[in-house]
Amino acid sequence: MWMLSFIPDSFLIYVVNLILLAGAVGSVLFFFVLHRILRWFPALSPYYLLLQIISAALLVIGIYLKGGYSVEMSWREKVRIAEEKARLAEQQAAELNAKLNDEVKKKQKVIVENKIVYQDRIREVAKVIDKECKVAPEAIDIHNAAAKNKSLEKKQ
Amino acid sequence: MRFLMLIPTLLLTGCLTTAPKFPDVPEELKTACPELKEATKETQELSKLLDVVVVNYSTYYECRVKVDAWLQWHKEQKEIFDKAVK
Fold it and tell me: Nearest residue of A to residue B53 by CA position?
């Protein structure tokens, strides 16, 4: 039945209804109406039986296809809903990304601005800070090791 | 007989899905956090060391913003995805 998905809806229902209608009308005619008339014409009797078989087959095929069509349509509806959900999810994801991108940029801008202010302040008060304090080389080693997550040699 | 090999190919078309595609990541989150800055060995002034410390603190906060954004990204994208496949 999945192969029906390649055929357009309107054409599919048209064909299915046509087969079903032909089967139903043919069955009523050849089983209930015409057999009373045609039995008076023995020459037509082989065709009459053939027409009965064909109309019954068309009716059965029509009913089967109608059921298949309903199932096909319900699947197409499910696919449509799933596609709509996927489209909505992609749209929401893109909106979220844009929002997050802006937030990150804003926060990082504030951090960089603050950093510049701190560095300016250090330069302003550098003389005061450096006046009575000289950093020992060991302090630099410890700082750099911590910055790079390196292990320090243990003192005995 | 060799045309029979086409049948499995046709059947495979029944496996098409409509799952949402994997969401993109914001450009700002695609860069790795930078290394922390080291002070030069010759540094003796506390102000210069303090400058390096300030830069490193800023680097930490910039990186923290990214990690927080990743966490938020994952949480909200998961909610969106769960709603879509429910």
Answer: A143
> Mind listing the pLDDT tens digit for each residue in A68-88?
889 988 988 998 999 999 999
Tokens of B73: 């990204």
**By the CB < 8 Å criterion, does A78 face chain B?**
no
Distance from CA of A127 to the nearest CA of B (A): 8
| Cβ(A90)–Cβ(B11) below 8 Å | no
Q: What are the domain boundaries of chain A?
A: 9-148
Given a contact cutoff of 8 angstroms between Cβ atoms, the answer to whether A143 and B41 are in contact is no
pLDDT digits (tens, 9 = 90+) for B41-83: 888 899 999 999 999 999 999 999 999 999 999 999 999 999 8
pTM above 0.90, yes or no: no
Q: Is A22 in contact with A58 (CB distance < 8 Å)? A: yes
